[in-house]
């Protein structure tokens, strides 16, 4: 059976190897025909699809609760994140109103909440500060921060839209996680440095330094610490203490609550802002103690304005970085809940939706936005059923913009800085991944430090990409495997052999892809077998904790310990014997004596004793090095045995081990894997039959 007969028998439609440009022209041509226009319109204007399937009796209440909850939760978050972007708090409210409305029209993810996000805000602030302090400011006269940010927003949207048109979303799926982490960490660290003066109640003059500007800012903060306003520091410290304690003690209690309010988070940020406004109003903190407040919060919306285009050449690198990070975060969150609720999201449509959101919002003084992790989680927990929840949350923000603005004028700036510092703390903890990166992939470790200053982004392709894209089509005989990952009742186990002889190196994204392949295939009741996997990759996977931990037997450890003690005793005896011979030689005249030794042919030959002793010393040194290596192996086995005993009753560790690649899945050749495949499938089938009780 050749390849064509195989494809025909199992109904596999192989992609034609045509020209990419001709394919694009054909696709757009089909979309303009009478038959293809409606499907193309539904794909791009996604609100048509979810409105057709919307059932008010089943979905409206859930969407209403989720939308109101997310809207209330978003008010303090939008205001504090706006300060991260270096803007007045009201602009965060604008960025929380327009993007959800656009996303409800074009977005494909049900639970994603689009708006302000800490990482993009930090990157926006970094870009705007550089532009306002640029050495060639005379090239763009009259530039304000709002103009710089709206110009950045529309350029980011154009980049995302163009990337969607040329289908760059396929490349973005394999964007390296260390690349995103490097950009995220640098932006977060920059944001923390900019918030410290507000937290302490003093101001630092801005400087235009082409290099090491962050270090100059840190030095300026250290020199101005003596100007700290103690009352401001007290207010911000109390706010931070309340937020941290609520996060540690109250949030777990709220999450474990099973009543009517299940899934609704504790509004610690909103409570902090309300208490701070009351304290500032009744104690008159600004006039009596010099605590800076928001002063004026305008009602309504600013008039639409066309963004500037003359600064695009200076900000295109920042726009490209923001476009990539925003899309990566949005897709990551969308895929999490798409898998959980069993619906599909269109990666290309998500990229196009983000582009249209940023282009459309830039005319209303909005900075670049993306999906928010925390708001998306709140939206899902509150039971959102469609993008109507995003529209309702935007209506809540609209009410705040039109009516609540003047009530926020007494809010101290230091409280918003405290909220920001608490929010970015988990993002700063990404630096704890560096030891694992060093063990798994030193290239990614170096990239973590170099990337943000050289490339800003990367599209590292893992060598398992093709397998990852095709893993759900690996068994064409059983269509049920393709439709559902979680439910595979009535299907038999089978095996698939992956020839790994071309795998020379795997970066951190490749390791994650191999892990996903192993987990997803086993959920589909397919056992992956890895043949010709190089020893260097096995060591790398062991260090990345991808392979199952080797079971250590106590008898094996005791035998190895006994052999080591015997070998150590023998080496000591050899050393003592050699030392005695040297002392004997030293007493003789000249220190050199010729010995008569019997050879195999019974002929006497003479050799120098010094040469013989040198050979003996070299042999003893080699034996000692082997002994030290065996001692290291013994220490590792003892440590594994100790951890093994501790984890014997740990169910969580057992679950982790079950997701790793087992030793019986790795073979030196395809032939060996073929010999063992049928036996392993039978064992796997019998094992799961025992777990499922018969009716």
Summarize the structure.
With 695 residues, the chain is mainly α.
List the helices and strands and how they pair.
Blueprint: H1 3-9, H2 20-31, H3 34-44, H4 47-52, H5 56-84, H6 89-95, H7 98-106, E1 114-115, H8 118-132, H9 145-165, H10 169-172, H11 177-200, H12 213-223, H13 230-255, H14 268-283, H15 285-289, H16 312-341, H17 347-361, E2 370-371, H18 373-381, H19 388-404, H20 413-428, H21 434-440, H22 442-454, H23 465-470, H24 480-483, E3 494-499, H25 508-523, E4 526-531, H26 535-543, H27 554-586, E5 594-598, E6 604-608, H28 609-646, H29 651-659, E7 666-667, H30 670-691
Spatial sequence of strands, sheet with the most strands: 3-4-7
Shape: globular
Enumerate the spans where pLDDT stays under 50 for 5 or more consecutive residues.
451-488, 591-607, 690-695
Q: What is the first-to-last residue Cα distance?
A: 42 Å
Structural class: mainly alpha
Count of spatially separate domains: 3
Indicate the proportion of strand residues.
under 5%
What kind of sheet is the major sheet? 3 strands, parallel
State the helicity in percent bands: 55-70%
Compute the gyration radius: what is it?
33 Å
Q: Can you give the mean pLDDT?
A: 79
Provide a count of the helices. 30
Number of strands: 7
InterPro entries: SLC26A/SulP_dom (IPR011547), SLC26A/SulP_fam (IPR001902), STAS_dom (IPR002645), STAS_dom_sf (IPR036513)
Main location: membrane
Transmembrane segments: 59-81, 101-125, 178-197, 311-331, 351-374, 386-404
Domain STAS: 484-550
């Amino acid at each position: 059976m050749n390849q064509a007969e195989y494809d025909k028998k199992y109904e596999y439609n192989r992609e034609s190897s045509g020209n990419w440009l001709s394919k694009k022209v054909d696709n757009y041509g089909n979309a303009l025909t009478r038959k293809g226009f409606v499907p193309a319109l539904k794909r791009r204007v996604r609100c048509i699809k979810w409105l057709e399937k919307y059932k008010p009796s089943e979905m409206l209440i859930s969407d209403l609760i989720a939308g109101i909850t997310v809207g209330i939760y978003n008010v303090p978050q939008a205001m504090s994140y706006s300060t991260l972007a270096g803007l007045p708090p009201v602009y965060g409210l604008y960025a929380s109103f327009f993007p959800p409305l656009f996303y409800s029209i074009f977005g494909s993810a049900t639970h994603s909440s689009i708006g302000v996000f800490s990482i993009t805000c930090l990157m926006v602030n970094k870009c705007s500060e550089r532009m306002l302090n640029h050495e060639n400011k005379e090239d763009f006269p009259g530039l304000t921060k709002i103009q710089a940010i709206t110009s950045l927003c529309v350029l980011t949207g154009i980049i995302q839209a163009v990337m969607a048109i040329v289908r760059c979303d396929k490349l973005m799926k394999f964007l390296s996680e260390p690349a995103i982490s490097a950009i995220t960490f640098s932006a977060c660290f920059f944001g923390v440095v900019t918030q410290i003066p507000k937290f302490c109640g003093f101001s630092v003059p801005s400087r235009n330094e082409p290099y090491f500007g962050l270090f100059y800012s840190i030095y300026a903060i250290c020199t101005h610490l003596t100007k700290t306003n103690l009352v401001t520091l007290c207010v911000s410290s109390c706010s931070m203490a309340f937020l941290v304690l609520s996060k540690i003690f109250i949030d777990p209690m709220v999450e474990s609550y099973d009543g009517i309010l299940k899934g609704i988070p504790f509004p610690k940020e909103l409570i902090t802002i309300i208490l701070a406004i009351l304290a500032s109003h009744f104690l008159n903190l600004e006039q009596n103690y010099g605590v800076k407040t928001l002063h004026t919060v305008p009602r309504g919306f600013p008039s639409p304005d066309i963004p500037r285009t003359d600064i695009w050449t200076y900000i295109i690198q920042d726009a490209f970085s923001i476009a990539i990070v925003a899309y990566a975060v949005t897709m990551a969150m969308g895929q999490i809940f798409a898998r959980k609720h069993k619906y599909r999201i269109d990666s290309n449509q998500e990229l196009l939706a983000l582009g249209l959101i940023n282009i459309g919002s830039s005319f209303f003084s909005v900075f670049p936005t993306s999906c928010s992790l925390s708001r998306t989680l709140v939206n899902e927990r509150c039971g959102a059923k469609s993008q109507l929840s995003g529209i309702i949350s935007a209506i809540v923000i609209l009410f705040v913009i039109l009516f609540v603005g003047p009530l926020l004028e007494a809010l101290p700036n230091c409280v918003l800085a405290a909220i920001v510092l608490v929010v970015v703390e988990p993002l700063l903890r990404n630096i704890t991944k560096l030891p694992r990166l060093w063990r798994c992939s030193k290239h990614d470790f170096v990239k973590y430090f170099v990337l943000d200053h050289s490339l800003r982004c990367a599209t590292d392709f893992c060598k398992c990409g093709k397998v990852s894209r095709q893993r759900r089509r690996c068994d064409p005989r059983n269509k049920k495997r393709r439709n559902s990952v979680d439910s595979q009742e009535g299907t038999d186990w089978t095996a698939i052999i992956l020839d790994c002889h071309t795998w020379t190196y795997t970066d951190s994204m490749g390791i994650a892809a191999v892990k996903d392949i192993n987990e997803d295939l086993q959920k589909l009741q397919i056992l992956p077998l890895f043949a010709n996997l190089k020893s260097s990759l096995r060591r790398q996977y062991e260090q990345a904790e991808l392979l199952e931990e080797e079971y250590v037997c106590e008898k094996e450890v005791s035998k190895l310990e006994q052999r080591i003690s015997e070998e150590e005793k023998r080496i000591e005896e050899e050393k003592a014997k050699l030392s005695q011979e040297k002392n004997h030689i030293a007493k003789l005249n000249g220190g050199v004596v010729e010995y008569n030794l019997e050879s195999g042919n019974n002929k006497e030959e003479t050799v120098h004793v010094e040469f013989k002793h040198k050979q003996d010393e070299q042999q003893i040194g080699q034996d000692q090095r082997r002994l030290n290596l065996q001692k290291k192996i013994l220490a590792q086995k003892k440590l594994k045995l100790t951890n093994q005993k501790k984890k014997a009753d740990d169910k969580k560790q057992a679950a982790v081990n079950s997701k790793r690649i087992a030793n019986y899945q790795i073979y030196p050749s395809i032939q060996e894997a073929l010999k063992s495949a049928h036996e392993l499938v039978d064992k796997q089938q019998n094992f799961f039959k025992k777990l499922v009780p018969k009716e």
